[in-house]
Structure formats: structure tokens, C-alpha cells
Amino acid sequence: MGRRVRKAVFPVGGMGTRFLPATKALPKEMLPVVDKPLIQYAVEEAIAAGIEEFIFVTGRGKTAIEDHFDHSFELQSMLEERGKQDMLEIATSMMPRAGTIAYTRQQEPLGLGHAVWCARNLVGDEPFAVLLADDLIQARTPCLKQMVDAQARQGGNMIAAMDVPAAHTDRYGIISPGFQHGNLIEVTALVEKPKPDQAPSNRAIIGRYILQPEVFEVLERQGPGAGNEIQLTDSMAALIGRQPFFAIAFEGRRFDCGDKLGFLQATIAFGLAHREIGDGLKTHLGELAATL
């Protein structure tokens, strides 16, 4: 139903203040989980979902992200001279094909909705995905792939959702659910960061979206919302009733890597699943637990 999702937007303009001083000179999206930066996990998830064009909405101090997805001729030459072909393949494997990656600048930190709006001319008049690198998802089938497949059947807009403790609803955009069919949930309303006693459910939006281009028209005239920022949740809410709108209760485990504890939990989970270090890490954790 409708056009295939070919483009993905990665809002990467945030300052990462919760990880200072580590993020004073390093973009938070470049923080590594085991051996890959957060942004690479997001790009790889997009590639697995069939995304062909990658749009980064950056800010000041984010050139390391651009460099990461580019050639490093000195490094590549050194690895080739030393015959380290396996390392050379790793160093070049994260680079999308030439001409498939673009960057635009969010010149003011006015919120997620504003960051998405900054990509409007690069997205054009077609459906697109949005991925927040802070939300790292460990899943057998990548989360965005689950969403793209479901959206191809349902059409319209789709967001990823998960249940959160009722006391935490004021940290998320929250769904007012309608009918549910399998893991798809009709979205009848969206509320940004409601207080627990005002939340319509405890089903929260997490950082994966498939949106129709009409959202840009809403963002164009939208004023500030919660936190005095232009909220993507508010613009999505305006599309409900005009277009199909569903949430998917995705299969997988989400880690909030914008939070120190969530970042450490992700590092352990992905470390345990890593073919080179998983067994050694499991042994170490067992020994460490025995001393506590």
C-alpha cells in the first residue's frame, strides 16, 4: 500500500550533556557499544530494512560522524600495506554507496520535530523513516525491518512502541490505543510526556518512526510544545484521523543509550552476544557477581 520507504532521517544534532565530559569533543552518537558507535548500529538497521538514502541532521561539533562514514585513506593504506585485510574490510564496511548519504544542519536546538523538519527538502514528497541512535534495539529481525514490512501492508504512519512503568510516562510520548491486531495497535491519540495520572496508557513511543511527508506541512506551522520545543509527537498527533496510524509492539529489547545505566546495559548485552568476546565476558561477569 503506497510507496516503499527508501529514505531515513537520523537526527544527530543533540549535545549529549548527560555523558559529559566524554561528549565534550565527541558526538554522543559516536560513543561505542563494544566495537561500533551508536550511529553505525542505527545505519546498519536502516540498511537491513531496505533503506537506500541516509539523511543526517547534524549540529556543531558533529564532523566525526561525517568522517566515520567516509574513507580514511591513511588508515586504509596502512592496513593494506600490513596485509590486514580483515581490518580493512571492517574499516570500509560502514560506508554507504557514494551519493546515498546527505547532511543538513539544524542551526538551533529547537526539538526533535524541528530536526525532522530540517530534512524536508532532502526527503521530498515520499514516506520516510526516522531513527534515533540513542535507542539501540537488540532483535533477531531489526526493528525498522519489522516496521517497514508491517507498514507495507497497512500504509500510513507507524511508530515503534513498548510498555513502560506507569510512573515513567512523563519521560515519553504516550499512545492512546484503539483496536489491536497481533502486534499492531491502532493509535487514536498521542500525548507528549503526560503525568502518570493523566496518561492514556503506559505504551510509549521509542525512537523509530515511519511517517508520511504531510508531517512536514504540520511542522511548518507548529509552535513549541512540551519543554518549549517543537515536538514530533504533536505533529504526528495532527495526522491521526487523516491517515492510517499504527504502533507496532516490536520484538526485541530496547536500550536507552542516552542514559548512563542504559548505555552500560547495552554494552553488556551486545558484549555477551559478540562472537569474539561473549564467552570471556560471561565468565568475567560470573566471577564479578560472586564477589558482590
TrEMBL record:
Pfam families: NTP_transferase. InterPro entries: GalU_uridylyltTrfase_bac/arc, NTP_transferase_dom, Nucleotide-diphossugar_trans. PANTHER family: UTP--GLUCOSE-1-PHOSPHATE URIDYLYLTRANSFERASE. GO terms for biological process: UDP-alpha-D-glucose metabolic process. Belongs to the UDPGP type 2 family. Residues 12-265 form the Nucleotidyl transferase domain. Keywords: Nucleotidyltransferase, Transferase. GO terms for molecular function: UTP:glucose-1-phosphate uridylyltransferase activity. It catalyses: alpha-D-glucose 1-phosphate + UTP + H(+) = UDP-alpha-D-glucose + diphosphate. It is an enzyme of class 2 (transferase). SUPFAM superfamilies: Nucleotide-diphospho-sugar transferases. It comes from Minwuia thermotolerans. Gene3D superfamilies: Spore Coat Polysaccharide Biosynthesis Protein SpsA, Chain A. This is UTP--glucose-1-phosphate uridylyltransferase. The keyword Transport does not apply. Its EC number is 2.7.7.9.
